Structure formats: C-alpha cells, structure tokens
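step 4 of 6: structure.
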Amino acid sequence: MRRLLGLLSKDFTVAYRNYFFLIVFVVAALLIAATVFLVPEQLSTGTGILYTLDEVDSSLAKPVIALFEGHKEYKRLDSKEAIVEQMKKNKNTVGIVIYEEQEQLRFEVIMQGFENERSKNAMALTLESLANIGQLQAESIETVLLDKDMDYGKIAFNKSIVPLLLLNEPIMLGFIFLATLIFMEREEDTIKAYMVTPGRIKEYLLSKIILMMVLSLISTILITVFTVGIDVNWLMLIAITIAGSWFSSCMAMLLGSFFDSISKAMIWILGISLVLSVPMAAYFVPSFSPAYLTVIPTYDLMFALREAVFPGTNPAVMYRSILILAALGAIMYAMSVLSYKRSLARD
Amino acid sequence: MIRVKNLYHSYTNDSNYAVKDVSFEISKGEIFGFLGPSGAGKSTTQKILIGLLQLQRGEVSIDGKDIRNANRKLFNSIGVSFERANVYKKLTGIENLSFFAQMFSVPTEDPLKLLKMVGLQDAASKKASSYSKGMLQRLVFARSMINNPSIWFLDEPTSGLDPTTTSVIKDIIRNRQKQGATVFLTTHNMHIAEELCDRVAFITNGEISAIDSPRSLKLKYGEKRVIVEHIEAGELTKEELSLTEEANKERLSSIISAGKIETMHTQEASLEDIFIKLTGKELK
Amino acid sequence: MMRLIAIFKRDLKSSFREFLAVYIIVAPILFAIGLRFFIPSVEAISYQFAIEESLGNEVVQEFKKYGSVETYNDLDKLKSRVNKVDDIIGITKGSAGGYAVVLEGNEAGGSRYIAHQIINRLQGGERKEIVTFSDIGARISTVAIYGTSSVILMAIILCGIVIGLNIIEEKESRTISALGVTPMHRLEFILGKSLVGFSLPIIEAFIIVWILNMTNINLMMILVMTVASSLIAIIFGFLIGVLSSNQISGIANMKFLMLFVSASFIGAVALPQTYQRFLYWSPIYWSTIGLNSIVANTATWPLIGQYTMWILGLTILIFFIFRKKISTGLS
C-alpha cells in the first residue's frame, strides 16, 4: 500500500509536470465552449423531407399537411425545381411532391438515387397509410412497451452529443496519455531501477491506471456539469467512466509493451483509436447495428454513457458495459504484466 | 553471499551464448570486481544476478537463496547502481530518491544525506532533466544506497566522473565495505578495480579466464622488471631488464657494479597488462 | 538540387527502416479497404424487426420488404432482443388473436409506427398505388463521399506527421546541427523534407480512390486538391517538428492537431449552411468541402480554384505567422 501510494505520488507529479492536467482542463474547456456556443441546439440527424403541393384540393390534403407541418424534419418548398436544387446541396434529404388525380391524393417521391429498396418500400407504405389515415387507427393492434417512453429526439442536439464527447475525450485521451507516459519511462529506462526494488509490475501498472481514471473523471465531470448539468445518474456515470478508463488504459498498456518507441506504436495507437470510434456511427442511427459494430466494446460503452447522462430506458446496458469492460480490462492487464516481464528481458 | 555455478545465457535461445559456464563465489564483505571489455558478458551476468534477465541454465544463489524461487523481498537487501542514468527526468533529485525510498519495506536512508555524500545537495530540488551527465551518474549511485543494501551491485560507478568525485565515490564504497556490505563491481577501468577490489574476475567472450586478488594475479603473471638509467661510455642509456631471466640478471649486476647508475625503478605489471596477456584483448 | 534529393532519400530510408512509413502508407489503404466493406452495410440501413416464428412465413416475408428480420421462437428471447440498445421492433401474437408490437420505448420517431402500418397491410388493408418514385441521379451515398474524403485527408495528414517525426528524430540525434555546418541552404532542407509530404499523398489518394471504386470522378481535380491540401499537412509537420523537443511532446502536439483536423472535418460535414462561415479560417475546412464535392461529382473547376486559393492563402498566412519559429527551430 505504501508502495502504491509512492507510485501514485510519483505518477501524479510526472503527469502534472508534463501538463497532463492542464491539457485535460483546456480540452474540456474547448469542448464545453464548442458544445454550448457553437453546436446548434436544433440539428436534424435523420433524413430531411422537402415537400411541395402541386394543384391539390386543400380539403383532401389537409390532414397530411397538418402532419407534415408538425414535424421539424419536414420543410415545405414552392416547387419541384426548388426541391431538386435543395436536394443536390444536401444529400441527406428526400423530396415529395403532393398532387391530386381523380380525387385521390398522390405522391411523387424524389429520391437521391442511392437509397435501398427497403427504404423506398417503407416510404411508400408510410405515405399510403397517411393517405388513408382513418383506416390505420381503426385497427386493433396491441402495443407492448417494455420500458418507459423516452424520445431521444426531444433532447437538444448539442446536449445529445455529450455522451459522444464523454466517450471520445476522457476515455480515448487516456489512451494517448498513458502511451505517452509509458514510452517516456521506457526512454528513461527507469523501470529497470524499479524492478530491482521489492516493487511489483502489477503495482507499477496499476498506479498509472489510477492516474488515468482520475484524469478521465475530471474530464467527464467537467464536461457533463457544464453542458448537461447536474441532473444525471452520477453513480453510474462515474462507474462507467472508471470502467471505460480501466479498459482503455489496460489496452494502451498492453500495446505499449510491444514497442520500444512511441513513433513505432503511434500508428497502432491511431488505428485502434479509430476502430474504437467506429461505433459512433450508430449513435444517431440506432437501427444500424451490424455484428461487427456491436462487438466493439465502445458500442455498449457509448449507449451506457447515454443512459447515465440521460437516464431513461435501458439500465441493463450500463451494467453489461461495466462488466464487459472490467473483464476485458482485467484480461489485458494480466497480459500486460506478463508482456512487461518479457520485454524487460528483451534488451 | 553470492554463488554462481555453471551459468549460461543465450539471448537467442540457442547455443550462441553470451555467457558461457561462468562460476564464482563472493563472500560477505568482499568487493568483487568483474572486469572485461564491453560486450564481454559483464552486464548479462549482472542482469541475471539482479533478476532483470531470466536465469536460463546454471545456479545462482544470493544470501543462500536460489534466485529461481526468490521472493521480491530479497531486493530489500540489494542495491543497484546502473551504468545508464535511469532516473525520472521530470522529478527532482530528492524526489527521485524519496520515491525509491517508498518502494522498500525496510528502514531507508535520508535522501538529503545521500545527496550530500555525493555532492548533489545544491541540486537536490532541481529537476533531473537539468543535471549534467556526471550529476546523473552520482544520483544513480546515491539512489543505490537508499535501502542500506548489504549486497551492492555497481555498474561502472565512476565512468565520466572527474578525479575528485571519483575518489569521493571510492571512499564511499570502501566505507560501506567496512560496514559489512558485499560489493559486485562491474567495470572496464582497471585502476578502480586494482584499488578497490579484494578479488577480480576477468571475463571475455562470455567466459571467465581468471579469478584472484589483484596482488596474486600480478605475482603470478606479472614479470618483475627494472628500468635503469646509467652512464655507459660517457652517454646516458636507458635499459629495461627482467628480474627473472638469467641473462638480464647478470646484466643488471654488471651495471650495478659499474656504479654509474642515475635512476633505477622496479616496474610492476599493471592489471591491464595482465588482462591483455591472459586474454589477448584490450580493455575498451 | 543534389542535396535536396539527398535529404529526401535520407527521410525515406529512415522512415522505412523504422517501418513507420510502411505503416503510415499502409494505414489509409487498410482504412479504405475497411470502408469498402462498411459503406454497403450503412447504405443498406433499414428498419429491424424481431418476429415470433409462430406468426408464419408469410408475415416474415412481408416484413422483409421493409427491413431486416430476425425470428425468435420464444417470447422472452424476443423481448430481451428488443431490449438491447439498438432499435429493433418486436412483433408477436396479441392476446386477442391479432398482432402485438413490442417496443422498448426509446425508438426513434419513424420506427414506432412502421410496424403498425405493415400489420395493417397484412390484415388486408386496402392498397392503392398512389406513390411513384424518381431520383436525381446521385449514385454515391453520403457515407461513401465523407468516407472517401476523410481517408484521403487522413493519408495527407499522416504524411505531414512523418515530416514532423523525421525532424524530431534529426533534432534528437543532433544531425540537424551537423547539417547546419554544411553548405546546405535552409530552403533546400525545407524542400527536401517536404518532398515526402508531396509525393506520398498523391500516390495514396489514387490508390484510395481506386480501392473505393470511385474511378469515374475527376482525377485531375483530386490531384489538385491533394497537392493543395498537402501544403497544410507539410506546414503542420514542420510546426510539430520545430515545436516539439522530443517524440513525446511531438505526440502531444499531434493530439491537438488531430482535434483541429477532426473538428474542421466534422464541422464542414455536419453544420448547417448558416454556421459554416465559422469554419472559413481553417484550411482543412476548404480541403474537406473540396474533396467532398469532387467525390460527389458536383465540383467545377472554378469552385476547385476558389477552394485552392483559400487553402493557399491560409497556409501562407500560417507560414508567415510561424516563419520565425520554423527558421529558428531548424537551426
């Protein structure tokens, strides 16, 4: 215990003198400022719909138009030409021309051209249902709700990206910091001096992990308080941050044991960071969940963070994520202890 | 105190040995010099002894304990001064020592006292990154004493130091020996070895070629010679004569009886000469 | 000229020996290959349904028209599937014999109602062909566009990093001082170092475009944009090199560089038109929109010329701001 405290005080001093704490504060401040002032509160993440009316008898189209107008992702334009022009500028849009033929409301859907068949079918189905809105509601379809009702779409956009920041900065930043620390000590060759004391590798590594957890917590707490506020599930947020930081530091540690200089490890650090950030693609498209994405531990971690920041519907994901990260971290921790012993014998 | 028997080590895990069949014993309170040129296997042997390299073949015991199943607590009684100045550059001299003091579970020395001993008291609270090479060397040396080691491994403790500091370091080593420390000194500096060591081992190409005290090595392998400067036929001549060869001995007595000697010095072989004679290699 | 080429050769050699250049060249290509597999799965995004098997094949087939379907023979398993973090809608038998829709409660807007509409159709709701489709001929999806341009940009930035690391290496081994006492002009040194930054990205950009099968885009435009963007990367490389005293601080500086690059890229892609002017100061922003428009086949030469001018202007500005730093840092 005395040794661990000694290691911790050394690692904190070294980190402080390498401006790690300052960097954490500056990056957090930049992110907070960007989130609060730069990122718009309203930003549509789904497909935008541009529609226009083409000689329509108003009574026939009224219910449909009322529906369209109540939706923030729908925008009415003057003509089909205007729609096409807008669509060319923004590829994340689809156009609809509403017209009337033989007393029947009809729709011409203008797609971008790369959309898949299923999306088209769903679009057609939705529009057909809209045209016969009375029929749909008459049906007796039961709805089973497994959890509370929660509409993430109602959260302001700049707040809704906070879980992504929490995933990216505190946890990934730890990845870079730890690698830096490890390679600095490797360059100094101080681990050899440590190895001829009664101290053990596992204590040596644990001290650095604790440092990373503290840095992550500082960053997480700052970002959360100044963007979303204090109304979050703190216990879980802290637990998840610790688990995430444990996972990423153990991974950085393991990676660090394979290389003898940071520039050699650099591309792996970047590559792995990139792979770990791929699941972010699914954040705003929750029905996008191919297996290769969900197996990446940051996928669960990302939704666990969302659950902690915006408490709502799926507490299970938090526990699962903590367990998985803790276990993966433990495996990598054990491997790094072994790998460090080996790498010491290498030169 | 330290027993090494038939030690082999290969970095490539084949018969390409960096250390071959090395055996020696060091008794308590002895200063044992391990001499050889760079790449001879000195560091490899030392690394195995201090557990930085895995023991592959042979037997090593420290303080009667086989190092294969030694507890990490053994390091409480071991001090190591590395040749490379491996200190935390972002920490000050005193912080470096205090940190290491916390790693041991035995009473430790006062860091400031150690820094004073090696003349670093003024730089004690400066970051190690601002230290010169010699200062770093002294810091590493001071660090190796933090746990009052009874077994002390010193790797080139005086390399790059000026003569005054070197003699301070030598005094410290002698003092600790008096207090009962066993010292394993790795060096290629024969003068240091000659002055400090009770016994030395010569190592080249991973093999030990001789182990003995510097004095007996000299007696055994060193040829006694005399250098005489005398006046012969009105001119000053200088001659070097062996004290063991018959012809030389006769020549010497004839010079002495002529009575025109200006200077006369006995010339002892240095440890370095003996090393070259025994191993055919220069110390570098 | 001879000296300039000698510096270029030295840089190439030392980078290859460390496998660094190999990694840095291979990395974007690997990402391009990864992207090639990623793009189709993103383009195929549709609704996800978990259907109880006992509802029969006809139901499954109908749902398959609108999304991907997983079948379950056990209601509890189906419920736990729906409860996972992604959006998937469960369909089972209702207590009254009809259908029941199982929702988690946090599904995004559209997916809540689509199941009802499909069931409605299954239950024989009247079908009128009232929807027709046309398209504006965009064959490349947004993911493909942004993916391609981000990988090209990454290749360019990585080459800048190689320059930075090479300079740090020369500083650490003090060969930079040795070069300082040769007749070599500082400009030769700078140009020699920059050659890596110019030559590699061009090769990489074409390989990436080819891997992603984007061969019908204007390759001349890609060439112009890549060369212009390389300038930014080269300046950054030099800045990292002169501002960092060792590799460790080099990495720290790179971290900030990456933050700046990714913020510019994400901003250019995600911010609405009215906010874009906040990014005009960033040369990476102009590279991003330039590359995006080329990949999307909407670029025109005047537009590319305009973006290139912005990049050149901003890069020269950055160079003048740090000119002193760079020339003192290199001596």
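step 5 of 6: annotate
 - Strands of chain C lie at 47-52, 67-72, 89-93, 99-103, 131-135.
 - The first strand of chain C starts at residue 47 and ends at 52.
step 6 of 6: archive
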